Each structure stands twice: as C-alpha cells, then as structure tokens.
Amino acid sequence: MNRVYLDHAATSPIRREAADAVAEALRLGANASSVHAEGRRARMAVEDARARVADGVNAPADGLVFTSGATEALNLAIHGGVAAGATQRLLVSAIEHDATLQAARTSGAEVEVIPVTAEGVTDVGWLEQRLARWDAADGRPFVALMLVNNETGVIQPVEEAGRAVRAANGLLLVDAVQALGKIPVDMAALGANYIAISAHKIGGPAGVGALALAEDAPLARRVHGGGQERGRRAGTENLSGIAGLAAAVEAALCDLSEIDRLSAVRDRLESGVKTARPDALIVGDGAPRVATITCLALEGFGAETQVMAMDLAGVAVSAGAACSSGKVRASHVLAAMGAGPEIAGGAIRASLGWNSRPEDADRFVDAWVKAAERAAPARATA
Ligand code: PLP
Asked: Whole-structure pTM over 0.70, yes or no?
C-alpha cells in the first residue's frame, strides 16, 4: 500500500528543483573563499543564492546570513542581539518554537512571555500595553514572534505587532519558518529587523537556513573563526545546502499560487473528520490559519496512540510538535492556549505540502475515523 506523508511541517520531502541544485553545487567542488577560478565560481553561486533568498523575503541581500537552519538563525538573532548590547529584556510569545524560547532563556537577558488567546493568537493588546510602560534602562524592546505557529497553523498578527514595536523604537525578530511558501513573507511590510527561515520546511535540504537582517539590526557574531558571511558567522559556507535553499525558496514562492488547491485538501480532511466525529476538535479553528496545517484532538484518543495507529495504516503524521527525542510530551503551545492536559497531550498534527493531493485527505480520514472508533467509540446520540 502506498504511504501518505502528512508531516510537511516537520520536514517537507525534497523538491526536484532543490535536489538538482544541491547536486549541481556539489559538483562545483571548491571553497567559496578561494581566489582561484573554481573558488570564484563557488563564490558566485553563494552570492547568487543570497540574492535569490533575500528577494524571497524582501530583505536586503547583504544582510542575509546563511546558517545551519532556523534554530541557529534564531539563536544568532537573540544571542547576537543581546551581545551587541541592543537590549536587556526580551518579549517572547508563549507559543514560540523551542529554538526561540531556549535561546531567550540562555541569552543572559530577562525574558517576559507574551500571552496568546484561546484560539492561539498572540495578544497584541498585551504587547502594546507592555511597550507603553517600557523602561529605557532595559535598552530597546526586543520582541520575538512567529508568523505561523508550527503546531496549529494559526497566522499571527505580526504586522500589527510590528507597528507597535517600531513605535516603541524596538527590535522585531520574526520566525517565518512555517509561513514561507504558505503566505507572503515580506521583511519591509512586517517591519521586522530579523527574519529566520529554514530550507527543509519548504522542500529544500535539512541543515541549512538563513537569518535576514534589516540594515539597522544589531548583531554580534556568535560563531568565531574566519571572516565568512561578512564576519557574522564563521565557517566555510555549505555551498550545496545554500544552493538547495535558494531553489526551494523560489519553488515555494511559485507554489503560493497553488495555495487554494492545498486549502481545499485541508478542508476536505477537516470536514471528513468532523462529519464522522463531530466530537473532534480542530484546534485554532476560529482563527486565521495557513492552508497546510490541521491540529486535531479527540477526548480519549491519545496522541501517541493516534500517531501509531495512523502509521500502521500508512499515514505519517506528528504528535503536536515533533520533538527530537521521539517522545511525545504535552504541547506548550496548546497549554498556553488554555487547553487541558487531555488536549495538550492528545493533539496530532497533519501537515500538507507541495506534493499533497485530495486522495491523501481521504486516506487520512478513513484511517483516523477507524482508529478513533476503536480507541474512543462515538457516544450514541439519544
Ligand atoms: N521555528 C519553527 C516555527 C519551526 O517549525 C522549526 C522546525 O521545527 C524551527 C524554528 C527550527 O528549524 P530548523 O529545523 O531549521 O532548525
């Protein structure tokens, strides 16, 4: 039986364009810092990729730093911003990825958590009030927000928050990992000083990403060594990964025109589930969401059981956030939304991407409804 892959938010299978670009760059076989012709060709490939990736998020090309992924990009922005003396106090939303939360906690700055609503939307009103009583002794307000949440798919009001941050002379870091290719990501429109992206969430290779910097973004280097990346991140550039990232960004942006197609697949999946099991909960249902993520919970049907049952039925999904240890733990995102332990520890995520088709939604619904019936039989209605 063919398997159905609905875990694009964890890693999206590599796109042909990206795989081709990786293979081609691997064959260049030279160091982009070398002065000979081979090195200059490698340098041209890196700089060409830099311009294309920067263009994809409407950022200045000379401010784009290639990294080993979004985790490093987020750490670089937060630790690098604090080390540059920009701030002594970070404001971080409760639903940020662990990369942001852990970077903030280890930065040496004080950390305050911005709450979210029950629908999983960052409370901009709270942020505005907090910024209004900012103490200049803490330096500039440094605010970290994600554009799309990786567990719920809820789109965050970052543009609105950006206006408040700018008015307070603050700095805004945007985690655009799950937004890129799903909604427009525009550094200038968002008013962001830093934007983090990752290749493997959009059909590029894993282990490469970027931090886009606006002209005025304070940053002290965190990885010391050579002068690569304009002195912002030492180490020989990952030429093939960088070429794969650029190809994936361009292909993902082309796919923005296809988003209605994916939206229809997602709706088909959710309405199939809700028709069979009206007692199922689609998390964040009432908030604006990207077309590619469904977070689903059913009382009595634990996340681990769901993921295993779906895997046996040939459908790959994640339990809330996929975590590195492979263990399922209660979701800090759902907990921040006020969900009880049953939901926070019981939700699964089905995430679509560039190769998802309507039949995938049907396979999901069929397998999920059967497994749900075994684990948590629907109550007979009177
Ligand atoms: N931010 C978000 C929203 C993510 O979903 C992820 C990946 O799980 C990351 C950051 C980290 O990205 P990477 O795997 O490139 O380090």
From this structure: yes
Q: What single-letter amino acid sits at 317?
A: V
Q: Distance between CA atoms of 116 and 114, rounded to whole angstroms?
A: 7
The full DSSP string for 48-72 is: HHHHHHHHHTT--GGGEEEESSHHH
Phi-psi region for residue 31, left (φ > 0), alpha (ψ -120 to 50) or beta? beta
Is 295 annotated as catalytic? Answer: no
Among residues 211, 352, 255, 251, the alpha carbon closest in space to that of 20 is found at 251
Q: Using one digit for the tens of pLDDT, what is the confidence trace for 31-47? A: 999 999 999 999 999 99
Q: Which residue has the tokens 């970290």?
A: 144
Residue pair 161/127 in contact (Cβ under 8 Å)? The answer is yes
109 contacts: CB under 8 Å, gap ≥ 6? 82, 87, 88, 89, 90, 142
**What tens digit of pLDDT does each residue of 145-171 get?**
999 999 999 999 999 999 999 999 999
Mutate to test the pocket of ligand 1, among 92, 97, 145, 208 (most ligand atoms within 8 A of CB): 97
Contacts of 102 (CB under 8 A, 6+ apart): none
**113 beta partners:** 92
